[in-house]
Amino acid sequence: MIRRAAPQDLDGVAELYNAVLRWESQGRVRTGWEGEGGPNRDTARAAGKAGTLYVCIQGGDVACAAVLIPGQPEGFAGVDWSESAKRGEVLTVQDLAVHPVLWRRGTGRSMMAFAEGLAAGKGRSVVRLSVCGENQAARAFFQSAGYRHAGTVGALAYYEKNLIPELEQG
Predict the structure, then answer these.
(1) Is residue 94, in this structure, part of any structural domain at all?
(2) Continuous H helices in 36-99
């Protein structure tokens, strides 16, 4: 079940982020979240208060979390997006995390489908996100989910997906 996070989910979200960071410290994944740069309990708390933190609950535990922001951060303005969209037409996905024991089981894909449905339901035509450029697994995941690479700026690779199918010429 995917839903907006509640205050009682905070411990589970923090543990989820810590599990991903443990895998990174073991060299099993490259997120770019190490140190002060990644999501943590404080960023999860802030997103929860803002109403933008969503969780996927499996077996009573937080299996996946993502921050789904209406609009896009100012830092995204410097990217050469192929989809022209005003800020109000965009939903931005940040801090997507799937518990490592659930990788490759469809949990992340379910969260992204939820994000796309939420965006479309609110009249947003594009979903955008950034990922550590060295995180090859995440980059392959987003490309397989239909996201187009829009460019790389610094250490981040940017992706977007148009939610409004083009009308076929004919």
Answers:
(1) yes
(2) 41-50
User: Using one digit for the tens of pLDDT, what is the confidence trace for 115-164?
Assistant: 999 999 999 999 999 999 999 999 999 999 999 999 999 899 999 999 98
Q: Which domain holds residue 154?
A: 2-162
pLDDT tens digits, residue range 54-104?
A: 999 999 999 999 999 999 888 888 898 987 787 679 999 999 999 999 888
Mention every residue, 6+ apart, whose C-beta is less than 8 A from residue 152.
Answer: 133, 158
Number of domains, the chain? 1
**Residue with structure tokens 């960071």?**
21
- 3-state class (DSSP) for residue 146: coil
- Does residue 93 sit within a domain? yes
Contact status, residue 20 vs residue 97, Cβ threshold 8 Å: yes
Whether residue 170 lies inside any domain: the answer is no
Identify whether 132 is part of a domain.
yes
